[in-house]
Structures are given as structure tokens and as C-alpha cells.
Design a protein that fits this description.
Layout lengths: L7 E2 L4 E2 L1 H15 L7 H5 L5 E2 L4 E3 H17 L1
Antiparallel strand pairs: 1-4, 2-3, 2-4
Length: 75
């Protein structure tokens, strides 16, 4: 799996970078067969939001999760 690249935003709502990075690691492990993860777990993922410090673009992270859902549903 290629590491996703998300735009960092400031002074606008964003997702906490550390929480998203941890989730990306969990997804990578699942896709490599090292840890279980269901599509529902990816769908249920929630991240703390940021406003006055850098965070990842909400739209970009949500789009990436949609792509991951399709891969997890395929098996």
C-alpha cells in the first residue's frame, strides 16, 4: 500500500494528524494481512478535529477512507 499524502490545513477544521497516522498504520497492517480490520471498522473511524493547529484535510482523509472501504470489502 502506498502511503497516502494529505494536505495540512491551519485555521480551518482538520483531522488530528497523529490519530490519522495511527489509523493509516492499522489499515496498512490489515491490507498486508498482519492485523484484522473490517470495512465497518474503517467506516466507523472517527478522528479528533483541529482548528488552531495543523491537521489533515477532512475531505482528503474522508475520500481516502472511501477508497479503503472498497479494498476491505473486496476481501
Amino acid at each position: 500500500m502506498e502511503d497516502p499524502r494529505f494536505t495540512a490545513v491551519r485555521f480551518a477544521p482538520g483531522y488530528d494528524m497523529a490519530a490519522v497516522d495511527d489509523f493509516v498504520d492499522r489499515v496498512r497492517a490489515a491490507l498486508e494481512g498482519r492485523a484484522p480490520m473490517t470495512a465497518q471498522e474503517a467506516l466507523d473511524a472517527r478522528f479528533p478535529t483541529t482548528r488552531l493547529r495543523s491537521g489533515y484535510s477532512v475531505d482528503e482523509v474522508d475520500l481516502w477512507i472511501d477508497e479503503i472501504l472498497a479494498r476491505l470489502e473486496q476481501g
